[in-house]
Amino acid sequence: MNEAVFWLAAAGCLLPQVSAGAALVLGIAVALAFGNPYAKQSKAASAKLLAWSVMALGAGMNLLAVARVGLQGFGYTIVGIAATLALGLLLARLLKVERHIGLLISVGTAICGGSAIAAAAAAIRAKSHQISVALATVFCLNAAALLIFPPLGRHFGLAERAFGLWSALAIHDTSSVVGSALQYGPQALEVAATVKLARALWIVPVTFALGLFWPHAEPAEGAAKAKKPWFILGFLAAAALVTFVPELKAAGAFVSSAGKRALVLTLFLIGSGLSRSAVKEVGWRPFAQGIVLWLLVGTGALSAILAGWVR
């Protein structure tokens, strides 16, 4: 019974009528109501499918526009990451959150959610329970962001470009950033994907610095293995092909469309990874740190965009 429900729900996410937000909610509902009989397989598949989906989205974008957006965001990316890390560590200290968990939540909020947490966990030799708590916190906030950001963007009258920028700056994971922008419009999607992927490159210098300067103990059992964000190169390569080989533009549009539908399925798989035990494992202190930090980053980024300080 559980297997049949899972497969029917997953197949339904391939229908064009199913939005990214609906797919995430459906995944969460299936997981909490029936359980996920393929929990391990879903986790592995969602990571791979997300990477391929993001690369496929690149086939629908112009590389010159991507480069222009990435360069424009260089300055506020540095300021944003530094400020978020400082605020996150301060909140962790005030709330008495375990040191490693506080850092992982801060890094995940500052850069790109789960990918940054996994990379930072390897650099500081975090233990498995510390990684799980940080990931569960970010997961819950990602789910909320995917549902509330599009309505909030329309409420504040944000143009597509402004919304894409806000999503990239204020939502943790690439999947939820792209999923949120996908609901808002094509220009929002282009800006959000570009800014978020450029931001994800900061995983490398930040984790390198953590490995050098963050005090940590001996290698821990269950520590995460750092993952290289190779899909960023794939995204850029796909955008370069359709930009400099005009004959591939039609094929690129088809690939990009398929990538958007694969992303919706990815969000269902991500949602199906939530469990009652994961919700209980978060606890109130790390979750409080995560949500307060997220609210500060989100409102700060929105205020800067509305004031015209960030474009």
Quick overview:
This protein has 311 residues and is mainly alpha-helical. It has helices at residues 2-12, 20-34, 39-58, 63-72, 74-95, 99-110, 114-124, 128-155, 160-170, 174-184, 186-200, 203-213, 231-244, 249-271, 276-282, 284-307. It has one domain (41-213, 230-307).
The oligomeric state of the chains shown is single chain
Shape: globular
What's the Cα radius of gyration? Answer: 19 Å
The helix fraction, in percent, is over 70%
Beta-strand percent range: under 5%
Order of helices and strands: HHHHHHHHHHHHHHHH
> Mean pLDDT score, rounded?
83
Class from secondary-structure proportions: mainly alpha
The number of helical runs is: 16
Report the span from N to C terminus. 50 Å
Q: Low-confidence parts, pLDDT < 50 over ≥5 residues?
A: 217-224
Number of domains: 1
Biggest sheet layout: none
Number of strands: 0
Write up this protein.
This protein is mainly alpha-helical. The chain has one domain (41-213, 230-307). Helix content is 79%, strand content 0%. The chain has helices at 2-12, 20-34, 39-58, 63-72, 74-95, 99-110, 114-124, 128-155, 160-170, 174-184, 186-200, 203-213, 231-244, 249-271, 276-282, 284-307. Helix 6 packs parallel to helix 8 (128-155). The longest helix has 28 residues, at 128-155. It is globular and about 55 Å long. Mean pLDDT is 83; it is low at 217-224.
